[in-house]
Write a sequence for this structure.
């Protein structure tokens, strides 16, 4: 139903300096796998096979990762280390990767708008922010859950989670009515509200399904919080003139854009890997 997924990956990753001075934050490894590969695998599990990546200066490592490395493969050919490339070889074989650049950091809305040349303007598509690492050890991945929901509602969908009321200023926050268990009809969205002015503690995380009309909405959306073009503002407008659903997903999310969340994710996958040996 949805075959294309966008990966905005042009940010500077300043919270991980100096590590991200020369390395994209999306390539930071959780154990032996970079963050963006976890995201691509989630998209593949949801049925996507075209991955559109919005990059920026200094992000060539992402392009190289999803390509064949002939010299490396020659060096390890026939050794036990060769099997360590099985997963990435499978990804390269099964998926098509396309790229464009966001030349200026003008916000997530701008990055997604730049991605229209990668996903087209006729079909719905997924969006994954790689530094939001999501897992669901008991079932389907988050994007797959959302695609199942899309088959029912046929509208833009955002993934949400409850956050501490004191942390609402870090997120886009939704307001809406619960229409079924864990599913909300969005009536309003606010980007990083003040603690006392937040409409709820239901925060949007880095998983979206967007209908193609979002591009026209973004085009007419003015810069918002921090002078950036916020996807939250565009989705709020889409909700008022149509329908946007918020989905309280099943699973766990690690904020790998922060050092604490990155360490938590590393510990989680270390324990998981240790138990599976």
């Amino acid at each position: 139903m949805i075959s294309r997924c966008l990966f905005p990956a042009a940010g500077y990753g300043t919270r991980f300096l100096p590590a991200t001075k020369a390395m994209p934050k999306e390539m930071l490894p959780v154990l032996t796998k970079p963050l963006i590969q976890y995201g691509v695998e989630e998209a593949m599990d949801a049925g996507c096979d075209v991955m559109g990546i919005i990059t920026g200066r200094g992000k060539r490592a992402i392009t190289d990762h999803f390509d064949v490395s002939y010299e490396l493969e020659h060096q390890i050919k026939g050794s036990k280390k060769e099997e360590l490339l099985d997963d990435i070889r499978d990804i390269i074989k099964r998926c098509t990767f396309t790229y464009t650049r966001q030349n200026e950091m003008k916000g997530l809305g701008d990055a997604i708008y730049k991605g229209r040349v990668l996903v087209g303007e006729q079909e719905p598509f997924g969006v994954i922010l790689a530094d939001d690492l999501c897992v669901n050890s008991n079932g389907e991945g988050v994007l797959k859950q959302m695609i199942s929901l899309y088959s029912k509602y046929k509208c833009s969908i955002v993934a949400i989670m409850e956050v501490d009321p004191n942390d609402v200023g870090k997120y886009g926050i939704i307001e809406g009515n619960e229409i079924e268990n864990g599913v909300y009809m969005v009536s309003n969205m606010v980007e990083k509200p003040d603690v006392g002015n937040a409409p709820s503690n239901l925060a949007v995380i880095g998983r979206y399904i967007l209908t193609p009309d979002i591009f026209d909405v973004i085009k007419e959306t003015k810069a918002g919080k921090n002078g950036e073009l916020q996807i939250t503002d565009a989705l709020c407008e889409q909700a008022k003139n149509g329908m946007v659903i918020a989905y309280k997903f099943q699973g766990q999310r690690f904020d790998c854009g922060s050092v604490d969340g990155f360490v938590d994710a590393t510990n989680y996958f270390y324990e998981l890997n240790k138990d599976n040996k």
